[in-house]
Automatic annotation (TrEMBL):
Keywords: DNA-binding, Transcription, Transcription regulation. Pfam families: HTH_27 (PF13463). It comes from the Bacteria. PROSITE patterns: HTH_MARR_1 (PS01117), HTH_MARR_2 (PS50995). One of its GO terms (biological process) is response to stress. The keyword Nuclease does not apply. This is MarR family transcriptional regulator. It comes from Paracoccus aestuarii. Residues 29-165 form the HTH marR-type domain.
């Protein structure tokens, strides 16, 4: 983690230069938002293409990502929603479909009968493994091409987590 260099209080930047720096950072931030949205859409397209290749047409990419993000855990629908990005989707509706198709097992909580806990069935685990293998192949291809090295992906992830934390704080501040 890099700490910013200490500022010399006796040296102030020209206000025009400060405005240019802020504009450059704002432009870069807005571009990163567009890239993030495009990457999410592309990821769903990659999952869709993989499932078509495997003749697994009964699932949508969003449903496959729900299965992937559910993993080995047993969680509520609310917990699952907070774990993943389900653009334009209704998690409850998709969970109901996944239960009907046999990919997810659901069970009402003994303590709160309104709450439902979900976990993967063996069929759901198989789908999760398909998505995991797809992502592993992509990681290997990106690593061998050097794409993940400059800047190092762990630094990109660190910055993304900081932005995620900022956004979360903004949402909490509103409510």
């Amino acid at each position: 983690m890099f700490a910013p260099a200490p500022r010399d209080p006796d040296r102030t930047l020209d206000p025009h230069l400060q405005d240019l720096a802020l504009t450059d950072m704002t432009d870069a931030y807005l571009e990163s938002l567009q890239i993030l949205e495009r990457m999410h859409r592309l990821m769903l397209d990659l999952v869709k293409d993989e499932f078509e290749r495997l003749h697994k047409g009964d699932l949508t990419p969003v449903q496959a990502m729900i299965l992937y993000n559910l993993g080995e855990a047993e969680v509520s629908a609310g917990e699952l929603r907070s774990r993943g990005m389900y653009q334009g989707s209704n998690v409850s509706y998709n969970l109901k479909k996944l239960v009907t198709m046999g990919y997810v097992h659901h069970e009402r909580c003994d303590m709160d009968r309104r709450s439902v806990r979900v976990r993967l069935t063996p069929e759901g685990q198989a789908v999760r493994e398909m998505v995991r293998q797809l992502f592993i192949r992509h990681a290997q291809g990106l690593a061998s091409s050097g794409v993940l090295e400059d800047p190092p992906l762990d630094q990109v992830n660190l910055q993304s987590r900081r932005i995620e934390r900022f956004w979360t704080e903004q949402i909490r501040y509103i409510y």
